[in-house]
């Protein structure tokens, strides 16, 4: 790969067919990176069993990837400035494929965890840099369409991941969870370099902020491990979790102080002084966290309580993507004509209203009663995600665009991790509470038990049936309560966007990371 050189005149745009091919390559690269954040979640028991480990030990497969990815995402801007945008992107993409192959070939859990760490390091830059290059190669009049394309892969990855992981584990060897990345990444890496190498950016030899990077690794790693293992360790009842919490808090405080006073920080936190950017980040943290929470909760509810297989729960959840893809071109077109705050408000509020409608779910619902609200939910996704990126980046100085985009990606990624931990813990706690309440109310007079024993059931069978009924309804109550909480999170996120002032310019996001 030749070193990128500074350019005095803009490069001619790619032709129509080559532009579409480059767009598809970048979208595919982003999709596999997002997909791998969730595809292993439902596969942990299968992987752990195959490698002779317990399920609790198997969660390290998820934790190791999440920690490594969370560390490299905010460093993407610095890496791209120092080594070149295209060079970092293609190297990350190829290394992601190589590490995926090594993960599939692992013969022990410790070996798999090590390869997952390297896979996470490689995957971190793919999300922000795929967005950067899309905006760099597409003409400005088509920039909104490029963001829409990128946004759909970001939003659909968490939905498809658990479903695809479950299907692979049901019908194939678990290694194919990782092998499926290999042909995509190698193909996209080879043709991506041939198409995009002329767009590589000039190098900026900034000093390495070793202290900032070290503090970032400490607090992000501690917090991510705390979130991943907190539920199984009973949170702060565990001394290990308490230590992780203290380390994360001290590390975060030290990181903030250092980065705000360092002349060449690895992560430029000064962009938060812009009210529009801060409001946009609050909106995306609340809204994406809420969306990710429902993406985690819905398959769990359908498979654990409604008796759905991985295939059928996947069909229900995948409904979200149908109208999301269909409405993306409209959202992209309107984002260049209408105040982005109105579009974001509509999209996020739509998601909130549909989620609140889902609070009336019951255990007797047929498939389409579950799937139809998910289908409608897809309408709001492009209106939330596409204009919000432009709104955030138009609020900062043009020289700060790279840092702002990297921080947005980091906050979005971390909000998903926090939402996953909160949803899993809250769902279990609310189910236990509802079960305790229902136990004293179900068949209090014993009429139902008497009917069962009269038709030939034993007393133990009758008690078991009543217990199962109470558990099923407890899960349903807990699910509806969480849908209500998530719905109001969307509403708060929709309101938060109005704290951003009206943008005075259209963001030039071609250098965003």
UniProtKB/TrEMBL annotation:
<keyword id="KW-0812">Transmembrane</keyword>
<feature type="transmembrane region" description="Helical">
    <location>
        <begin position="113"/>
        <end position="135"/>
    </location>
</feature>
<feature type="transmembrane region" description="Helical">
    <location>
        <begin position="405"/>
        <end position="423"/>
    </location>
</feature>
<feature type="transmembrane region" description="Helical">
    <location>
        <begin position="367"/>
        <end position="393"/>
    </location>
</feature>
<feature type="transmembrane region" description="Helical">
    <location>
        <begin position="279"/>
        <end position="302"/>
    </location>
</feature>
<keyword id="KW-0813">Transport</keyword>
<dbReference type="InterPro" id="IPR020846">
    <property type="entry name" value="MFS_dom"/>
</dbReference>
<feature type="transmembrane region" description="Helical">
    <location>
        <begin position="147"/>
        <end position="168"/>
    </location>
</feature>
<protein>
    <submittedName>
        <fullName>DHA2 family efflux MFS transporter permease subunit</fullName>
    </submittedName>
</protein>
<comment type="similarity">
    <text>Belongs to the major facilitator superfamily. EmrB family.</text>
</comment>
<dbReference type="InterPro" id="IPR004638">
    <property type="entry name" value="EmrB-like"/>
</dbReference>
<feature type="transmembrane region" description="Helical">
    <location>
        <begin position="308"/>
        <end position="330"/>
    </location>
</feature>
<dbReference type="InterPro" id="IPR036259">
    <property type="entry name" value="MFS_trans_sf"/>
</dbReference>
<dbReference type="InterPro" id="IPR011701">
    <property type="entry name" value="MFS"/>
</dbReference>
<feature type="transmembrane region" description="Helical">
    <location>
        <begin position="174"/>
        <end position="196"/>
    </location>
</feature>
<keyword id="KW-1003">Cell membrane</keyword>
<keyword id="KW-1133">Transmembrane helix</keyword>
<feature type="domain" description="Major facilitator superfamily (MFS) profile">
    <location>
        <begin position="22"/>
        <end position="505"/>
    </location>
</feature>
<feature type="transmembrane region" description="Helical">
    <location>
        <begin position="208"/>
        <end position="227"/>
    </location>
</feature>
<feature type="transmembrane region" description="Helical">
    <location>
        <begin position="233"/>
        <end position="258"/>
    </location>
</feature>
<feature type="transmembrane region" description="Helical">
    <location>
        <begin position="342"/>
        <end position="361"/>
    </location>
</feature>
<keyword id="KW-0472">Membrane</keyword>
<feature type="transmembrane region" description="Helical">
    <location>
        <begin position="88"/>
        <end position="107"/>
    </location>
</feature>
<dbReference type="Pfam" id="PF07690">
    <property type="entry name" value="MFS_1"/>
</dbReference>
<feature type="transmembrane region" description="Helical">
    <location>
        <begin position="482"/>
        <end position="500"/>
    </location>
</feature>
<feature type="transmembrane region" description="Helical">
    <location>
        <begin position="14"/>
        <end position="35"/>
    </location>
</feature>
């Amino acid at each position: 790969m030749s070193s990128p050189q500074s350019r005095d005149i803009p490069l001619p745009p790619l032709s129509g067919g080559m532009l579409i091919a480059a767009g598809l390559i970048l979208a595919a690269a982003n999709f596999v990176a997002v997909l791998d954040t969730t595809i292993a979640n439902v596969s942990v028991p299968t992987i752990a069993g195959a490698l002779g480990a317990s399920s609790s030990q198997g969660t390290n497969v998820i934790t190791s990837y999440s920690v490594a990815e969370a560390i490299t995402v905010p460093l993407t801007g610095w890496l791209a400035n120092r080594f070149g945008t295209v060079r970092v992107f293609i190297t990350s993409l190829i290394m992601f494929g190589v590490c995926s192959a090594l993960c599939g070939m692992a013969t022990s859990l410790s070996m798999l965890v090590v390869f997952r760490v390297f896979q996470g390091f490689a995957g971190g830059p793919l999300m922000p840099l795929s967005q950067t290059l899309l905006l760099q190669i597409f003409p400005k009049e088509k920039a909104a369409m490029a963001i829409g394309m990128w946004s759909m892969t970001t939003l659909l990855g968490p939905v498809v991941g658990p479903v695809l992981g479950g299907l692979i584990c049901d019908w194939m060897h678990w290694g194919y969870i990782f092998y499926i990345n290999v042909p995509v990444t190698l193909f996209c890496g080879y043709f991506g370099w041939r198409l995009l190498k002329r767009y590589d950016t000039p190098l900026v030899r900034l000093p390495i902020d070793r202290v900032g990077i070290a503090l970032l690794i400490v607090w992000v790693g501690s917090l991510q491990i705390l979130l991943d293992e907190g539920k199984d360790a009973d949170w702060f009842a565990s001394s290990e979790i308490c230590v992780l919490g203290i380390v994360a808090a001290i590390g975060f405080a030290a990181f903030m102080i250092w980065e705000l006073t360092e002349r060449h920080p690895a992560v430029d936190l000064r962009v938060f002084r812009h009210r529009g950017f801060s409001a946009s980040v609050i909106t995306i943290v609340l809204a994406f966290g809420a969306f990710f929470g429902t993406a985690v909760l819905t398959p769990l509810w359908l498979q654990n309580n409604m008796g759905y297989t991985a295939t059928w729960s996947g069909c229900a959840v995948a409904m979200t993507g149908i109208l999301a893809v269909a409405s993306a071109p409209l959202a992209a077109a309107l984002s260049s004509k209408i105040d982005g705050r109105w579009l974001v408000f509509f999209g996020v509020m739509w998601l909130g209203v549909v989620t609140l409608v889902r609070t009336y779910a019951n255990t007797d619902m047929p498939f389409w009663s579950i799937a139809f609200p998910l289908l409608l939910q897809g309408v709001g996704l492009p209106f939330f995600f596409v204009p919000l990126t432009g709104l955030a980046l138009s609020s900062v100085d043009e020289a700060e665009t790279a840092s702002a985009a990297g921080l947005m990606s980091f906050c979005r990624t971390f909000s998903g991790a926090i939402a996953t931990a909160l949803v899993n813990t809250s769902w279990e706690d609310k189910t236990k509470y509802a079960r305790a309440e229902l136990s004293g109310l179900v068949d209090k007079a014993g009429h139902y038990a008497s009917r069962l024993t009269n038709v030939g059931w034993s007393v133990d069978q009758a008690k078991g049936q009543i217990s199962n009924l109470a558990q099923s309804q407890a899960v349903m109550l807990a699910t509806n309560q969480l849908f209500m909480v998530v719905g109001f999170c969307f509403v708060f996120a929709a309101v938060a966007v109005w704290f951003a002032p009206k943008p005075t310019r259209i963001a030039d996001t071609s250098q965003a990371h």
